[in-house]
Automatic annotation (TrEMBL):
Bilayer-spanning residue ranges: 12-31, 68-89
Official protein name in the record: Alkaline shock response membrane anchor protein AmaP
Organism: Kitasatospora terrestris
Keyword Transmembrane recorded: yes
Keywords (A to Z) from UniProt: Membrane, Transmembrane, Transmembrane helix
Keyword Transmembrane: yes
Length: 201
């Protein structure tokens, strides 16, 4: 599991636990379950019966007359919104290193290769395979754990199994030989070029 995925799942799990516990406490107070089941509510928890409120009127209006109150509230909400937006946008963005190290298994011969240059070379090598009409390649992941993503357009009648076999034995094998990477993850999307429409008289 990737580090970012672990962090996301941990934060979501903690947030879910907090929301679940808070919701249960609110429900128990709203349905008067503490009295019905003879339970002691948590110390300091304000919602213990249906008539209680989370924040009394005095607490809600305590600072509203202060000059700093509304700017502070608006600033805090704006900051939370921006942080949530940044987090949301980061989920759909795959990290794409600009430069990668090739020949890492032989440190004295290791070189730095531009990400796009290597991806273009893989795409060109793949496009020469039989049964492939177009090929596009991207390298994502991290410098230490790169991932190859391919979008392949097959010619009409091409066999996907044969194309994938040729891809594995050809461009992917060449990539591993050139870079020294050991079985990098490969994600391939295949689609077929539609047959041209035929007109009959």
């Amino acid at each position: 599991m990737k580090r970012r995925s672990r962090i996301n799942r941990t934060l979501l799990a903690l947030l879910g636990v907090v929301v679940l516990i808070g919701g249960l406490l609110v429900v128990m107070g709203g349905l008067d379950l503490y009295r019905r089941w003879n339970l002691d509510p948590p110390e300091g928890w304000p919602l213990t019966s249906p008539g209680d409120v989370l924040l009394p009127a005095a607490d809600r209006t305590r600072y509203t007359a202060e000059d700093w109150w509304w700017p502070a509230v608006i600033g805090a909400l704006t900051l939370l919104t921006l942080l949530a937006l940044v987090w949301l946008l980061s989920q759909g963005r795959r990290h794409q290193p600009r430069k990668l190290t090739a020949g890492a298994s032989r440190p004295h011969r290791a070189i730095q290769i531009r990400n796009q240059t290597l991806a273009d070379a893989v795409a060109a090598d793949t496009a020469r395979l039989p049964g492939i009409d177009q090929a596009r390649a991207r390298i994502t992941g991290t410098v230490k754990h790169p991932e190859l993503r391919l979008r392949l357009t097959l010619t009409p009648g091409a066999e996907p199994a044969a194309v994938l076999s040729a891809l594995h034995d050809g461009p992917l094998a060449n990539l591993q030989t050139a870079t020294g990477w050991q079985d990098p993850p490969v994600h391939a999307r295949l689609k077929v070029t539609p047959h041209p429409a035929r007109h009959t008289d």
